[in-house]
Design a protein that fits this description.
Blueprint lengths: L3 E6 L3 H12 L4 E7 L2 H11 L3 E4 L8 H11 L4 E5 L1 H4 L1 H10 L3 E4 L5 H7 L1 H13 L33 E6 L3 H9 L8 E6 L3 H14 L3 E4 L10 E4 L5 E7 L2 E7 L11 H11 L4 E5 L8 H9 L3 E5 L9 H8 L4 E3 L1 H21 L1
Parallel strand pairs: 1-2, 1-3, 3-4, 4-5, 6-7, 6-12, 7-9, 8-9, 12-13, 13-14
Antiparallel strand pairs: 10-11
Helix pairs in contact: 1-6, 3-5, 8-13, 10-11, 11-12
Length: 359
């Protein structure tokens, strides 16, 4: 069996030692080198040709993000960010993901030894996912700003004004960028949107705030009991499942601290199942990049309830796990490249609206 060959890049000798022990304790992976700064890492990448890189942000000689940008432009490879900054500064985390990092682990701020040991399974699983991820050579843009709000939206054959239609979205690894690419294309009158993205609770509000600045629709972390109105998207907080409920004529958000489903809270299956039950044929399901099978059975239930469902295609997924499982389960109506998703979803929302008027 070919082991996953990992290069550790961190300026702390203790962290390098701990990560080496954690990774080498796994039967399917090994540390082939450890670098204290990006300049040494650059030489080791050339010499050792690792499968995956772990990367800190705050390092001497070159900032981790500067190094990541150069690396993904010149020699794209899977990168897992492991840094205290990833928790302290969500902007740094999202910038790293934007630059091409596959995922992140927040390094403990105190008691690093026992803290990192507690993260052993998480680090190992994310390295396995990173090894399987689809890496793209990035053409880089400057830091995001609100200029996107003024970009033209997809041209629709008919304005969407009904509050009955809903877009229900699930995503995991690679989903932060996929969701951004999807949501920035949506017009202010698009159907209400509920989103379950696998993400720690320390990041979901920052993620929602970031998208709200970029998009013409309103994006917020769900608090529970909000009306789901056109032009509004609600992202599940990292500590709770997000569900759809009904109050009279209104669709509303609901939060649950129930047990994890498919090892996740929020779970895509929980959201999709609530949409199947409450909205049925008035909902449009979207499943995006991510590892595992969360969302597959829920999307099948949506399909059986009359919803029309889309899956992101393999070529544009960072990890083609969740969409593949949903397709195999039989709940997907169309498999779509990410760049076409907004147009296709809006077109279907419009056609559903026209049919509803005729009935």
């Amino acid at each position: 069996m070919h082991k996953i060959r990992v290069l550790v890049v961190d300026d702390s000798a203790l962290v390098r030692k701990m990560l080496t022990e954690i990774i080498n304790s796994q039967a399917d992976m090994e540390v082939i080198g450890a670098a204290p700064d990006p300049l040494i890492a650059r030489e080791m990448i050339r010499e050792l040709n690792p499968d995956v890189l772990t990367l800190d942000v705050e390092m001497p000689k070159m900032d981790g993000l500067d190094f990541l940008e150069k690396l993904m432009r010149l020699r794209p490879m899977p990168v897992l960010m492991i840094s205290t900054l990833t928790e302290r500064s969500s902007d740094v985390t999202f910038r790293a993901l934007e630059l091409g990092a596959i995922d992140f682990v927040a390094k403990p701020k105190i008691d690093i030894v026992s803290g990192l040991q507690a993260y052993t399974d998480q680090i190992a699983n994310k390295l396995r996912i990173a090894k399987q991820a689809r890496i793209k050579r990035h053409s880089f843009v400057t830091q995001p700003n609100t200029v996107t709000r003024n970009e033209a939206s997809p041209i629709l054959p008919k304005r969407i004004s009904s509050t009955e239609k809903l877009i229900i979205v699930g995503a995991s690894t690679g989903g932060t960028e996929a969701l951004k690419d999807f949501l920035i294309q949506l017009p202010p009158d698009c159907p209400g949107i509920l989103i379950a993205q696998h993400m720690p609770e320390t990041f979901t509000k920052s993620f929602a705030d970031r998208l709200d600045k970029l998009c013409r629709i309103n994006v917020a972390e769900a608090q529970g009991d909000e009306r789901v109105l056109p032009g509004h998207a609600f992202i599940a907080p990292g500590h709770s499942h997000l569900l759809l409920k009904r109050s009279g004529a209104n669709y509303m958000t609901e939060l649950s601290r129930g047990e994890p489903v498919n090892r996740h809270r929020p779970s895509v299956d929980v959201l999709f199942r609530s949409a199947a039950k409450i909205a049925g044929k008035n909902s449009i399901g979207v499943i995006m990049t991510g590892m595992g099978k969360d969302g597959a059975q829920g999307m099948l239930e949506m399909h059986k309830a009359g919803a029309y469902n889309f899956a992101q295609d393999e070529a544009t997924c960072v990890v083609y796990g969740m969409p593949k499982e949903a397709v195999m389960a039989g709940g997907v109506d169309e498999i779509i490249p990410l760049q076409d998703m907004a147009r296709k979803v809006l077109s279907k929302a419009t056609s559903i609206g026209v049919q509803a008027v005729r009935v």
